[in-house]
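Title: [Solved] COMM domain-containing protein 6 3D structure

Original question kept below for reference.
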Amino acid sequence: AADKINLIPQDFFAELCEQIIQHLNRKIPGVNTAELCQRIQTSGIEINVGDLAKIANIISFLFSTAARNNLSMEELVATLGNAVSVLPKHAVQVIRHVWNEQGTSISVSEDARNMATVGQFVDIKWKLGVAMSSDTCRSLKYPYVTVTLKVADPSGQITDKSFEMTIPQFKNFFKQFKEMAAVLETI
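Solution (posted by the thread starter after getting help):
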């Protein structure tokens, strides 16, 4: 991972670290590595989303472990030990700075840790479509609904999950959402 971190410019790495701290503080649902990766690639750096997600997981683990153990900035850098010699100098500087500025604000209550293992719903999008024909059937005229859920997994990575439903399935889905809304209003 250190060689991939070396590819990331300091400003993008700082942004990644800050987003991770915000996620750990429950201020944002997750780190949008796909969007950040696209911006890094646009600046001319060759890195893929998978590598950036691995780096985000490593930094997230580092910060959450440091928060759980109430480490100071000096203790964090000392704990990194051998990794400091492997990590690029700019990455160590960013980690030190971000941890010094915002690290102590990370709350690691037991409830937050338990909730984080589930993931978090971020957004939902849907669209109505009609399948007009296929290779095997000339005239389908079959309506369907495509739903895309944006979900932040426990590590904070935001991913899209898509699925299609028939109109009766969508009506049932909608009915269940109305029931959930009614229950939530009573709380």
